[in-house]
Amino acid sequence: MTDETKEPTTLWGIVKPFLWVIAFIAVVCIVAMTVSTTMNAYNQIIAKDVKVEQMQGSVQTALERRADLIPNYVEIIIGSSKFEHDTLTDVIEMRAQANQIKENVKSARTVEDIQQGQDQLGAVIGRLMMLTEQYPTLQTTAQYRELEAQLTATENQINGERNNYNTAVMDYKMTVRTMPIAILAHLFGYDEDRWEMFKANEKAQDAPKISFDKMNLSPSEGR
Fold first, then answer.
1. Ranges of each domain in the chain
2. What CATH fold (topology level) applies to the domain 54-222?
3. Does the global pTM surpass 0.90?
4. Residue 59: which region, alpha, beta or left (left: phi > 0; alpha: psi -120 to 50)?
5. pLDDT per residue as tens digits for the range 194-216
6. What is each CA distance from 80 to 42, 74, 95, 124, 141, in whole angstroms?
7. Nearest 5°: CA angle at 201, between 74 and 149?
């Protein structure tokens, strides 16, 4: 057979012997892309989840700081005023309550537990402020004014940390709802209800403000 009888070389003729190699490379590329996309999606979910956990810890830390101010309040009241036995017993009890609430906040795992701790601290501080209203001279001391400023700053920090937490939770929820990440999140148990958000409660978040009207006392009666 002469060269003239040979079939002309075509692109298919060149590619055909390497077809299995091309198919193998294509499969490897598809698998690699799938694995990479899956890993990126999983890492994104984990990052959002960890961010929420960190923000929750920041809220708890701020609440612990608030609880730490209560014993200082108690010491200033005891050191600056003369009390009846029952009053002294009350403020010492408030200090013990603050320490217990602090431990509860530190070990809290849910938003409901944290909110409960915040409300309890607010109640204790409210009682202390009602007490200080009865001693106007106490409110003029430098120690009291400094402590009051620290309390206000801590209240603002708590509100800020709560907002940061809610933002992180919203970001997490949006991420785990987005396709195709939603499928992966569901497979690994990262559903959108994993984290709760703090609900707006302006009355509970504000620093307690006590007036003589609320106490049914006049300034003269409080002295």
1. 54-222
2. de novo design (two linked rop proteins) (1.20.1440)
3. no
4. alpha
5. 888 887 655 444 444 433 333 33
6. 58, 10, 16, 19, 9
7. 35
